[in-house]
Design a protein that fits this description.
There is one protein chain. This protein is mainly alpha-helical. The protein has one domain. It contains 6 helices and 2 strands, in the order ααααββαα. α2 runs antiparallel to α3, α2 packs across α5 and α4 runs antiparallel to α5. The mean pLDDT is 79. One of its GO terms (biological process) is polysaccharide biosynthetic process.
Length: 162
């Protein structure tokens, strides 16, 4: 099962897709914090949901060869459920790691050479670490749940009376 779960092709494709999502998440969260008076956690939340849209289409098209299935509605519902968990890991994991790093190590800032932009390394590393944990969780759940027919969607419809 481990060979099937972590096969190179799917893992590499998912890594590229996730890197695109992570980059868009970082970019949106950074821009929101720089241009608007928005909290760190709120910026992470907005950045996450922007990358969610990017991630769904790229994951569906490239990562798990799910583009030819007729189960789009099922995949969207499952993708949203996995994404809610991932959002909690990313946003609250980042916020908790940031607060811990501040209290244990103090605040570290880095001035980008030849600019006036100062980067808060505590925030950056906290977000990257939480996104790494989210990546692992997402990969396993999307591969084993979202883009696989598990019967979950049928049970959910039955439970909701749809």
């Amino acid at each position: 099962m481990a060979d099937q779960l972590f096969n190179r092709r799917d893992l590499f494709a998912y890594f590229i897709v996730a890197a695109t999502g992570a980059f868009s998440n970082l970019l949106v969260a950074t821009i929101l914090q720089e241009w608007f008076t928005i909290s760190y956690k709120s910026a992470l939340f907005a950045g996450y949901w922007f990358s969610f849209v990017v991630g769904y289409f790229l994951t569906r098209l490239f990562a798990f060869n799910a583009k030819n299935t007729a189960q789009s509605r099922r995949q969207i519902v499952k993708f949203i459920l996995v994404s809610i968990l991932s959002c909690l890991i990313t946003v609250y994991g980042s916020a908790i790691l940031y607060e811990l790093s501040k209290s244990w190590l103090g605040v570290f800032n880095f001035l980008i050479p030849f600019s006036v932009k100062e980067v808060n390394l505590n925030k950056l590393f906290s977000q990257v670490a939480a996104m790494g944990a989210s990546f692992l969780s997402n990969y396993i759940l999307h591969k084993q749940f979202t883009f696989r027919d598990t019967g979950f969607y049928d049970r959910l419809k039955k439970l909701l009376g749809i």
